[in-house]
Design goal:
By secondary structure, the chain is mainly α. The protein has twelve helices and no strands. Helices cover about 85% and strands about 0% of the residues. It is globular. The mean pLDDT is about 85.
Length: about 230
């Protein structure tokens, strides 16, 4: 009990310190989303602290991701005019993006010979954590694994987002924001807001709608992909 409480205190203290460091030296690798998890992993391994012990008092932080995701509705409401004008493009982008994410995850799992539970968890990872947890619980995946896969997906999108967008030569703010929100969910949305407020709003919208789409249609879509491609 005391050890798990120390883990909670250490997580908060570490976040405050790393955030201050990132504000002074705004390099991507010093971002709290990248540096802090790396430090926590090293400490857990060095002191032989189990994941279950760490999460005993830290699990409510994961639960708070739900209300945090809902909070993105505020800027979405403020930009509702732009969203209405591009509703069709946004909707098609979400459907195509989520389908592409599921199919690519399926082939990646086959490539590494993952078992069924790991495969299902990987196929659920292309949305923000609260939605991914709800989805994987319905299809028989692992909540722990989907959290890890979702974090890896988001961090990768945040790190490589600028490079990919430059290669694709996307000029539209709408397209850039939708790409980041769709592919890298919360981390991508944070990156989009750092680039431009309009990008961040569109990224917020696509992140939330992608999550809703996957929770509603994801189980059927995932099983359909497995049936057709398996």
């Amino acid at each position: 009990m005391m050890l798990s409480l120390l883990c909670l205190i250490g997580t908060f203290a570490g976040y405050v310190l790393v955030k201050a460091l990132h504000q002074r030296f705004p390099y991507l690798l010093l971002s709290p989303a990248i540096l802090l998890p790396a430090i926590i992993i090293l400490i857990l391994v060095a002191f032989n602290i189990s994941y279950s012990t760490y999460m005993q008092d830290n699990q409510w932080i994961v639960w708070m991701l739900g209300p945090a995701t809902v909070a993105f509705a505020i800027p979405i409401y403020e930009y509702r005019g732009i969203i209405r004008r591009h509703a069709l493009a946004i909707g098609l982008g979400i459907c195509i993006g989520m389908t592409a994410g599921i199919v690519s995850a399926f082939y990646l799992a086959r490539w590494f010979h993952f078992d069924e539970q790991t495969t299902l968890s990987l196929m659920s990872r292309s949305i923000s954590t609260p939605f991914a947890i709800a989805l994987t619980a319905h299809i028989g995946g692992s909540v722990q694994l989907v959290i890890v896969f979702t974090m890896i997906t988001g961090i990768t999108g945040m790190v490589l987002g600028d490079v990919v967008l430059a290669i694709l030569r996307l000029r539209s703010t709408l397209a850039q924001g939708a790409s980041l929100g769709n592919a890298a969910h919360g981390f991508g949305t944070s990156k989009a807001y750092a680039r431009h407020k309009d990008e961040g709003v569109i990224a917020s919208l696509t992140m939330v709608l992608s999550g809703i789409f996957m929770v509603v249609a994801g189980p059927s879509l995932i099983h359909l992909v497995i049936k057709l491609l398996g």
